[in-house]
Amino acid sequence: MKRFFLGSIACMFILSTFGQTATKLPDPQPLKSSKMTLMQALQQRHSVREYADKGIGDNTLSTLLWAACGINRPADRRITAPSAINAQDIVVYVCKADGYYRYEADGHKLVKMGSTDLRPAVAGRQDFAKTAPVCLMLVSDLTKFRNPSRSREFGAVDAGYVSQNICLACTALGLATVPRASMDKETLAQALQLGENQLLLLNHPVGWPK
Q1: CATH class assigned to 2-207
Q2: Residue range 115-161, pLDDT digits in tens
Q3: Cα–Cα distance between 76 and 87 in angstroms, integer?
Q4: Half-sphere exposure of 103 (CA within 13 A, CB side)
Q5: 169-198 pLDDT, tens per residue?
Q6: Which residue in 117, 116, 62, 69 sits closest to 91, CA to CA?
Q7: Domain locations along the chain
Q8: How far apart are CA 16 and CA 80, in angstroms?
Q9: Strand 90-96 versus strand 134-141 pairing type
């Protein structure tokens, strides 16, 4: 079964490589989206593993992705999350029922990579995760670091920063999430076209509270 799924992913990759499309997201609205203070978000943050059967609109997703690692200082392209040596190595991938996407902070857009629903691969052996309308995956591009001997360490730390941003943004936006390291990394790495220096570290199922 898994071999069949991997084969399907490979076929979808061949077909989608020629037609990747970029979609500009709505402008993020961090101040209008929530009146919750940072201290309130910290107090209320908790992991949630059940999600309502309700989609996440583009406006909310736009603000969540910007909060994760979007550009907050356009003059020098600095982002919302800290990053070792400003490597900005973390790439966020978005999985939905209609396919999977790569978030690009430059231009604040989603690039569609394929039409396969990868949420079951993100869920792995924990079925609750595939019920979330959106799953975010955090990948560190280790080539962004100058010191190869510490690149994995730096990448893991940077993924933690982005993960915390996602947790707090979800709380402020009224969304539910849980950070996870469990997933079918082999299937996902093939679908996302990851090389040996691109490390899939964490994922976040995201939905509305049930």
Answers
A1: alpha beta
A2: 999 999 999 999 999 999 999 999 999 999 999 999 999 999 999 99
A3: 13
A4: 29
A5: 999 999 999 999 999 999 999 999 999 999
A6: 69
A7: 2-207
A8: 31
A9: antiparallel
